[in-house]
Description:
This protein is of the alpha/beta class. The protein has helices at residues 10-15, 24-33, 40-45, 54-59, 127-139, 158-169, 183-186, 193-199, 220-231, 250-262, 286-296, and strands at 88-92, 95-101, 145-150, 176-181, 205-211, 235-241, 266-271, 307-312, 317-320, 326-330, 333-337, 343-346. It is 29% helix and 19% strand. A 9-stranded mixed beta sheet has the order 1-2-3-4-5-6-7-8-9. It has a 3-stranded antiparallel beta sheet with strand order 10-11-12, with no helix packed on it. Helix 6 runs parallel beside helix 8. The radius of gyration is 20 Å and the shape is globular.
Amino acid sequence: MNARRAIRSVEDMQKAGLVDGASVASLDAVAARYAIALTPTVSRLIDRSDPHDPIARQFVPDPAELLVAPEERADPIGDAAHSPVEGIVHRYPDRVLLKAVHVCPVYCRFCFRREMVGPQGLGTLDEASLAAAFDYIRQHDEIWEVILTGGDPLILSPRRLEQMLRELASIDHVKIVRFHTRVPVVDPEKVDAALIDALKASGKTTYVALHANHPRELTPEARAACGRLVDAGIVMVSQSVLLKGVNDDPDVLASLMRAFVEARIKPYYLHHPDLAPGTSHFRLSIEEGQTIVSALRGRISGLCQPAYILDIPGGHGKAVIGEGSVRQIGEGCYSVSDYRGGQHIYPPVE
Length: 350
């Protein structure tokens, strides 16, 4: 394989030595349902001699993805229930998600929007839909923060990003613009002066939330890319997912959080895996997650402590799943408090 070419098919993965011929047929079935993409940076990070490599586990498809558990759902965090216009999710009063694009440079095998992203997904908002999304933001002066997500918004060209950010610049009540992305770790060379200028084009306070799940993702090149963003005045925070076989170990998680802080990125959220279809092989129990997270206390600096978060299925928002907000009410069954004080059964019972 050309070392500079993205991997987008099972055939590509076989040529790159990421899968063997015996698994091609079963993986073709996965590829027919869910998008595949690995950047050259990610491909180089994978240790082909390790059958349990934590980078490969995140990006190389697995036949287990075809097994859908009864509690799993196409829209596990309930985006659709809070989408007043296409591309907008208004779940909390003072902020909205703006999902302008449903394409990513890489596709995580545990993605909670896996039914919406990729070539077969919802694509990119057309001009009319994007204009309607901005009109919605403009008409709701309670919106203080706009979070660009998707998909990965940094896959867009700097010119396109700048156009969108200049639109937000004209909306006075929007004070904060946040981007959710994997680009600095999966394609660090893309973080250049043109992209940084585009990210700052709104003139608002700008945050970048970086998604990474294993300390090996924070390569020297990734740290340099993050350094360029921070040096430009962009605040960075982290988002990670607690994943079985990737970072479900206190030492690995501690190394990841320290790596963020060393790169001037504040650990923010550690997500419990969502109930996306075909992802049960990544999920731990809440008790297992709490045990791992509690092991970080006292082991690493307070600067390195993320909030352990569950997105309550059905669109009820995030809950910090410490002992105060979650309690076990049966075998593998919990009651979770949302931010309004409502109680929800997890996993949901239909």
